[in-house]
Amino acid sequence: MSEQSVITPQRRGMVVRLREDQVVAYTDIHAQVWPDVLAALSAANIRKYTIYLRRPENILFGHWEYHGQDWTTDQAALDASAAMQRWLAICGPMQIGLSSDDDGWADMIEVFHLD
Predict the structure, then answer these.
(1) How far is 51 from 49, CA to CA, in rounded Å?
(2) Any residues with CB less than 8 A from the CB of 81 and at least 6 apart, and which?
(3) CA 19, 106, 100, 85 torsion: positive or negative?
(4) For residues 21 and 17, what is the distance between their CA atoms, to the nearest angstrom?
(5) Is residue 5 very low, low, confident or very high in pLDDT (cuts 50, 70, 90)?
(6) What is the C-alpha separation between 91 and 26, in angstroms, rounded?
(7) If one looks up domain 10-99 in CATH, what number appears?
(8) Cα torsion angle, 97, 87, 107, 15, sign
């Protein structure tokens, strides 16, 4: 009997600002995420993906777990996905980076976690 390797998930956090005039459109599209986008995220080993909206500042906080073994390869496949490219073409312009040199979601560093 062979032992299967256990993959410890990597938790990821990111933040971006949402344009004031796009709050309704952004929340509406995320209420019914396209099945092919969900499939692309799952294929990239992304699980437990949640996006929170902080009003009135319009700050989005995203959190998810990566359950794969090669993030670089999985991210490249996700970025190449036609579904994700269409999705990001719609959602990307709705967002504003938090600083002038940041054009989108900014990664965050985990400083505390409790299971």
Answers:
(1) 7
(2) 36, 40, 43
(3) negative
(4) 12
(5) low
(6) 7
(7) 3.30.70.100
(8) positive
pLDDT in tens, 7-45: 678 999 999 999 999 999 999 999 999 999 999 999 999
Would you list the DSSP string of the chain? -PPPPPPPPEEEEEEEEEPGGGHHHHHHHHHT--HHHHHHHHHTTEEEEEEEEETTTTEEEEEEEE-SS-HHHHHHHHHH-HHHHHHHHHHGGGEE-SSTT--S-EEE-------
Q: Check pLDDT > 50 for residue 2.
A: no
Residue 1 has pLDDT above 50, yes or no: no
Buried residues in 10-28 as b, exposed as e (16+ CB within 10 A): eebeebbbbeeebbeebee
**Residue 78 CB partners (closer than 8 Å, separation 6+):** 40, 41, 43, 44, 46, 84
Token reading at 74 = 């999985």
Q: What is the pTM of this model?
A: 0.87
